[in-house]
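Ticket #4471: structure export looks truncated?
Reporter: QA, pipeline team
Priority: medium

Steps to reproduce: submit the single chain below to the structure queue and open the exported record.
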Amino acid sequence: MFKPVSVGILLCSLLSLASCKSKVPSSLPKPFVASFAPAAVLVEKVEAKPDTNLLTPEERKIIFLQKSGSHPYWRQEEAIHYDVRKPNFVIIHHTAQDSIGQTIKTFQIPRTKVSSHYVIGRNGEIIQMLNDYVRSWHAGVAKWGSIVDMNSCSIGIELDNNGREPFSDAQINSLITVLDTLKSRYLIPTNNFIGHADIAPARKNDPSVFFPWRKLAESGFGIWYDEGQLVAPPDNFNAVDALKIIGYDTSNLKAAIVAFKRKFVVRDTTPELTIYDKSVLYNIYKKY
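Actual output as written to the record:
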C-alpha cells in the first residue's frame, strides 16, 4: 500500500499528495539544545493548500519528495492510517574532530554527505541536528544481524571526542539523558544501543576504547557481561556463531573480533580470542 514519504512526525503533516487534502503544521521542528520537545499532535485538516512562495527551501524539498513518490497515471486517494519511520536502534559515535563547531559545520556543508541526529559536547551540551523520524546519514556501509541498512532504523549520536581521550562525566551524563528519552519514547530494546564499530567493524573504531559501555549498560542502555560469573564455555561452543548471534558481521572475522574486544575486553584488542575472551563472549551470548 502506498504511503507518502514522511520526514519527521511534524513534517509528515506538511502536505498531502496530489489532489488530496492538505495537513498544514503550524511550524516546522527546529533543532534545540539540552531539551526535548513534547510529542507532536496533528492539526486540523484545512482545504486550502499552502502558498509555496512562502515556504522555505527545506519545505519545498519535502513537497518535491512527496510528489516524487506519487504516480500521476494512477488514481490518488488518501489513507489516514500510517506511521512515520520508527527508530529501533541507537548508534553511538565519536566525532574524531577537534570541536563541536567543526562537527556541526561538517553536517551542514553539501560535500560531506554525512549527518547525525544529535551531537553532544564535552561540556554536556546537547544539540539536535535532525528530527528523530528523519533518516540520517551516519551509519554508512554497515550490518548488524540481518540488517544492512542501519540508517533506516537507527538514531545516530555523535560525541565530541577525537577518539584518543576519555569522555567527560558531563558528556556521558547528557548522553544518558538523551538515551533515556529515546528509549522511553520509541521503546528501543536494551540490546539495541550499540556503537559504530559494532556495525562497521572493518571500517570504524568509534566510540573508542575509552567509551564507558559498562556504565551505559548499568543504566539500561546496551549489554554487559557478569564479571563475577565468568566460566569457560563448553567444548562445543562456537565463537564465530556466538558473534553472529550477538549481531556482528563475521565476513571479516578478525575485524569482528577486534570490535568485540575493543568494547568488552578493552585492554587487549588483538584479533584472536583468548580463553578469557571466550568466557566473556560466552557470557554475553547467553543473554541473547
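Status: closed, not a bug. The export was complete when the record was re-opened. Leaving a note from the reviewer for reference: The chain is about 25% helix and 5% strand.
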